[in-house]
Design a protein that fits this description.
With about 350 residues, this protein is an alpha/beta fold. The protein folds into 2 domains: about 110 residues, no CATH class; about 210 residues, Rossmann fold, CATH 3.40.50.410. About 40% of the residues lie in helices and about 25% in strands. It is built from 11 helices and 11 strands. The strands form 3 sheets. Strands 5-4-3-6-7-10 form a 6-stranded mixed β-sheet, sandwiched between helices. A 3-stranded antiparallel β-sheet has the order 1-2-11. Helix 4 runs antiparallel to helix 11.
């Protein structure tokens, strides 16, 4: 019963019933007045010497428990009258969703540590998982690439599964290193080719220039535009030089300064050809802002209907009320019975 009151979905349908508790002081005063001031019946004895010698029982001190039990029974009845209940909400969402494919660069250069305190791939994973978390009814897929590309996760509404897959991504681990932007974009377009969603979007994040693959980025962008797919491109990396870690066999982990070569021109052109937008993220905060802006630009309008069912719990209070009342009647007619 105590656990019932701690639940967030617990409420009373008729809380006005609690006004009955205001009668308790009146009942307490009436009981006190009857005990202290009121007249009681008397028994007439011809000789009281035997009565005087009778030892008083300590049970008399507990005679008020009968009145306490009565108040407890009334309290439980009042709680039952207040109609305690548990709410069970059912939500139905009606929306024409958006199909989104996130395309993330896993080339070795994504290990550069210019997104303090993270490297590029860890920063990209964090904001991508936050982006997925904020979606409601959109199917989202994941394509990863380096020298080649492949689909890590097809379009899905299972956001928990998708987030777990993003968390497992590692840069510099693919069989062929490089940056095949054109092939990655073509792979993402292929995932959306048969989509019937009202809006189809690709979010492509990379930190380099196209230097691998058989498909040029502009050619893949033309294909996306022909299919009505909007591409948002994100260039990740500071301007100038960045620290890149490498393992020295003698001294362990060391750093070298490497030039950041994000192809702003090509990424801008891809976005413009498809009706998207190009973003340059030079640190973790600007990367977060980039994904927040994309999230707002491609937000699904959701119509929600909420149905609420209630489970009545008043029976839990009637049972102890009857128990208290039964115990009161038992004690009042046995141990604490008044004569006459």
């Amino acid at each position: 019963m105590i656990d019932l009151f701690t639940r967030s979905n617990f409420s009373f349908q008729n809380p006005e019933a609690f006004l009955l508790f205001l009668s308790f002081p009146v009942l307490a005063f009436w009981y006190w007045h009857r005990e202290r001031v009121g007249k009681t019946a008397a028994l007439v004895f011809s000789d009281v010497r035997q009565v005087a010698q009778t030892r008083q029982s300590n049970v008399k001190a507990f005679r008020h428990i009968v009145f306490v039990l009565r108040l407890m029974a009334l309290s439980f009845v009042i709680l039952a009258l207040a109609r305690p209940r548990l709410e069970n909400q059912k939500q139905s969402i009606y929306a024409e969703g958006i199909d989104i494919v996130m395309c993330i660069d896993l080339s070795g250069s994504m290990l550069a540590e210019d997104f303090d305190p993270k490297n590029r791939i860890e920063a990209a994973k964090e904001v991508a998982m936050d982006f997925v978390k904020n979606r409601v009814s959109d199917r989202i897929g994941l394509v990863v690439f380096a020298g080649q590309s492949y689909t890590q996760c097809p379009l899905t509404l299972d956001y928990q599964l998708l987030r777990s897959m993003i968390a497992l991504l590692r840069a510099g681990r693919m069989q062929e290193d490089g940056t095949a932007i054109g092939v990655a974009l073509a792979t993402a377009v292929n995932r959306l080719r048969s989509s019937t969603a009202r809006s189809k979007v690709i979010i492509l994040l990379t930190d380099g220039q196209n230097n691998a693959g058989e498909i040029e980025p502009v050619t893949a962008a033309e294909l996306a535009a022909a299919l009505g797919i909007k591409v948002y491109t994100v260039g990740a990396g500071t301007r100038g030089y960045a620290n890149y870690p490498f393992e020295d066999p003698l001294f362990g982990k060391r750093y070298m300064r490497v030039k950041v070569d994000v192809d702003d021109e090509t990424l801008t052109r891809i976005a413009q050809m498809t009706g998207g937008k190009y973003f340059r993220a030079t640190d973790l905060e600007t990367l977060r802002r980039t994904y927040r802006e994309i999230d707002l630009l491609e937000k699904t309008k959701v119509e929600t209907e909420i149905y609420t069912e209630y489970k009545e719990e008043f029976a839990q209070f009637l049972v102890p009320a009857f128990l208290c009342l039964a115990l009161e009647l038992l004690l009042a007619n046995t141990r604490f019975r008044k004569v006459p």
